Amino acid sequence: MAAAAADASSAEAPPAPASRVVWVNGPIVVGAGPAGLSMAACLRARGVPCVVLDRADCIASLWQRRTYDRLRLHLPRHFCELPGMPFPDHYPEYPTKRQFVDYLNAYAEQAGVQPRFNQAVTSARYDGAAGLWRVRAEDAEDASAAATEYIGRWLVVATGENAERIVPEFEGAEDFAGPVSHVSEYKCGEAYRGKRVLVVGCGNSGMEVCLDLCDHNALPSMVVRDAVSTHDTTHRPLHPSLDYFSLADSIDFFLAKKVHVLPREMFGVATFSVAVFLLRFLPLWLVDAILVLLARLFLGDLDKLGIRRPPGGPLELKNARGRTPVLDIGALARIRSGHIQVVPGIRRFFRGGAELVDGRRVAADAVILATGYHSNVPQWLKGSDFFTEEGYPRVPFPHGWKGESGIYSVGFTRRGLSGVSSDAVKVAQDIAVEWEKQTSTR
């Protein structure tokens, strides 16, 4: 509560004046990941200049710095292309992490996008009197350097849904003797060879990390927390960076999540392609029912493995809550063979492992938190109700890309890279119309 109060008081006080002011003759784009690159490329294709700011020292820092080595795109490549540039023909159907990063670098070079790196945006406010956005950025490398204020008519929020790690706290965590890390720090299982590893989280990252640990002869146990009571206060996320989440959403996010698991392919066709095809002819609820039925036929009864499906359908939950279904690439086979143990939620940690909610104890030499990420927009966007407290546009898809006073969002549709591309095209077209009106009157 003290941290929250401090944040509130600092939000009320105006920031110190920046010693450097930069006029931007076009949109100010915050974020240099796929969303920001797409936005800048689409603007440049329409002759609209812009400035792209990013706190990191490279493009797509999430992909380059905070993902594991074996990661591949979970969807076929044609669903993940950015506007104006297909993947190279020699790329596989599911490009690797390295291939996707190379694609993004080539995309930025082809479009002539040159972000301003190490620019950590600390606040963005609309100046109603001037009709301009004032974006304050501090040097991410040099804390003693003077802040810069960027001023422009348009602000594009492109920091994405995965800007900050979610790090829950657990009772007794300080007593645990082994290392505790977030999945963003995990690269490969070699460092865990022969060790007992407790992986907290059963989404795509949790499943794939468990699979990678098996490949390196580690002994993973995966926490599937659907058995945890939402009234169990010992598991509330207490990390200060999560203060702006409502308590109900925090508990819902961390504790009570059953998960949909789908095969990545059916009869050699990507499950996502099947879903897209069916949605052309059938309502979403019926497509969800078909996907669940096919998943049961292909994957069997997952209840026997300790993995339970939630009541809503996979597409319904993805659209409404951003909960991506797990696409199985081999983890289920390792669960069935006993190489991956599925365990319920954690009650508390002790020196050599964790006590589970069912009273059992599981030994562990290390813990990996595959607990995901969240948007950080509420931390720096001030005086605007365009985004919710959870960091998503208040108006739901497909109309959440445009707000009032020249603010836009790209990459918050909960629809992955295809949603990024769709947003970028619409936003660039809308800004280009206004840009042409203004330039024609000069």
UniProtKB/TrEMBL annotation:
Catalytic activity: indole-3-pyruvate + NADPH + O2 + H(+) = (indol-3-yl)acetate + CO2 + NADP(+) + H2O
One MF term in the entry's GO annotations: flavin adenine dinucleotide binding
Matching Pfam families: Pyr_redox_3
Membrane-crossing segments per the record: 266-299
InterPro entries, per the entry: Auxin_biosynth/cation_transpt, FAD/NAD-bd_sf
UniProt entry keywords in alphabetical sequence: Membrane, Oxidoreductase, Transmembrane, Transmembrane helix
EC number: 1.14.13.168
Coiled coil: none
Protein family: Belongs to the FMO family.
Protein known as: indole-3-pyruvate monooxygenase
Organism from which the protein derives: Miscanthus lutarioriparius
